[in-house]
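testing teh design pipeline on a random one, pls ignore if ur not involved
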């Protein structure tokens, strides 16, 4: 019968990881990517010697990254190198207060006892509480899919769901232990990494701040794009086929069975199709109407989408000694977050800064610096969010004033060699994200775990999905878990020959 052929749509994180897993198990895998480079949202901009990570920048749980290479029979140290960061962050508050959070518990406790003496004990209690729930979630929900009714409706899942106490919001869960508003914000901002408000997202998403504190924030040498390059290299070493600048036009389906993909001017026959393109956009544009199951245009209109991101990439001809990661909080944090989902453009935004050249000079010309600014903004579901030239320039000017207000950055506009801007319109057009929602489907309770699209979401045999909008959700380690879930499922149901 021959080796089974697998077509993967999209060379994003989940697409490449799925390709590596299946190619290493003896399948014949071809990946089709519409962009000229691999990576999906883990993309890279290169200009005048500056190398900018386009999307994700914060590395957590490096062992999940490494597991992919180990699984494929390689030594991960030959592909990726990680460095534990200390401090984790520098935090800037509207009143001029600056707080530095260390990854060293001894140093961190001194900071907490000095700045928040009444909350140091509560902070530790919060970590203990969410750590216990993280262990339940990791074993019961994150590591496997929900592919049939018995995977959902069983005693263990019902018991574990109750133990997770997901009905509280993330912010309310934090507030139970911590009273100081600044410290609450330091623990709450991280839900925006997956595009959901801490005032709305389930309390289990406070695991993000817990993971940062207990397991560390790491730096991947060469920047986050080094992971995409390492996955590309490993996949090709295993004998896989990668076709860049090759958009897929349609998934070929006959009598309810996936048969391959249609490209520009040709068809590619395959025994299995795995779609790594973001689920809402992929189903809406690549799947014939009669095979979309419950995911109709009406269904997608009712679903809720994450926030988007306005990102400014600055190549600077001056060194600005600072930390790798910084967060600046709005004066009215709750109003700022509420505006994202109202939706209203934030008047006083919170934002995140990333400067990898503080520890990795290879990403910029000698003596120069990279500064990446990410501002959470509303997605484009509201059509007034045009992000035309006028809107983009006005918001860019507003954000440059915000950066200049941070001590040490007052003269930054005099030292810009390179500047690029990504708006929600960029995410929508270049990466095919519905409404430019950078993190896909919003991970609210009714769109998480068994309520999120699964690997076998459509009533089509031999068609599978992986990526941010599919269970278990957003974030690089979680998306790598998505690749593992879909790969294990294919190994189980489709013999390699």
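output:
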């Amino acid at each position: 019968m021959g080796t089974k052929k697998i077509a993967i749509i999209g060379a994003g994180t989940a697409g490449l990881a799925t390709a590596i897993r299946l190619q290493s198990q003896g399948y014949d895998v071809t990946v089709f990517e519409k962009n000229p480079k691999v990576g999906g949202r883990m993309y890279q901009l290169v200009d005048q010697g500056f190398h900018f990570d386009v999307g994700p920048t914060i590395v957590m749980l490096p062992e999940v990254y490494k597991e992919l290479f180990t699984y494929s029979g390689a030594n991960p140290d030959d592909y990726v190198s990680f460095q534990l960061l200390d401090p984790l962050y520098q935090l800037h508050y509207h009143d001029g207060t600056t707080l530095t959070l260390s990854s060293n518990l001894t140093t961190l406790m001194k900071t907490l006892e000095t700045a928040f003496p009444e909350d140091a004990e509560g902070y530790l209690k919060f970590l203990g509480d969410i750590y216990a729930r993280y262990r339940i979630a990791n074993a019961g929900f994150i590591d496997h899919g929900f592919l049939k009714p018995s995977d959902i409706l069983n005693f263990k899942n019902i018991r574990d769901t109750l133990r997770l106490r997901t009905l509280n919001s993330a912010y309310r869960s934090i507030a139970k232990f911590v009273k100081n508003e600044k410290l609450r914000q330091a623990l709450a901002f991280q839900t925006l990494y997956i595009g959901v408000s801490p005032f709305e997202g389930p309390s289990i998403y406070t695991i993000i701040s817990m993971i940062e504190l207990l397991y560390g924030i790491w730096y991947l040498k060469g920047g986050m794009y080094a992971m995409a390059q390492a996955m590309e290299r490993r996949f090709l070493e295993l004998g896989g086929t990668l076709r860049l600048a090759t958009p897929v036009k349609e998934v070929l389906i006959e009598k309810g069975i996936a048969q391959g993909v249609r490209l520009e001017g040709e068809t590619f026959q395959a025994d299995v199709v795995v779609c790594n393109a973001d689920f809402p956009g992929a189903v809406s544009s690549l799947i014939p109407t009669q095979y979309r199951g419950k995911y109709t245009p009406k269904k997608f209109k009712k679903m809720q989408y994450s926030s988007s991101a306005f990102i400014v990439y600055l190549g600077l001809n001056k060194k600005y000694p600072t930390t790798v990661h910084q967060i600046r909080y709005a004066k009215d944090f709750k109003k700022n977050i509420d505006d994202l989902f109202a939706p209203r453009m934030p008047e006083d935004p919170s934002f995140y800064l990333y400067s990898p050249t503080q520890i990795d000079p290879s990403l910029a010309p000698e003596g120069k610096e990279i500064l990446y600014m990410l501002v959470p903004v509303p997605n484009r579901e509201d059509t007034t969010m045009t992000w035309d030239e006028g809107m983009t320039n006005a918001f860019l000017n507003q954000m440059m004033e915000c950066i200049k207000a941070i001590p040490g950055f007052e003269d930054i506009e005099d030292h810009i060699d390179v500047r690029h801007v990504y708006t929600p319109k960029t995410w929508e057009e270049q990466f095919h994200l519905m409404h430019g929602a950078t993190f896909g489907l919003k991970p609210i309770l009714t769109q998480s775990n068994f309520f999120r699209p699964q690997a076998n979401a459509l009533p089509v045999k031999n068609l599978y999905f992986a990526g941010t909008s599919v269970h278990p959700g957003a974030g690089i380690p979680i998306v790598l878990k998505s690749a593992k879930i879909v790969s294990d499922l294919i190994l189980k149901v489709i013999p390699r020959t």
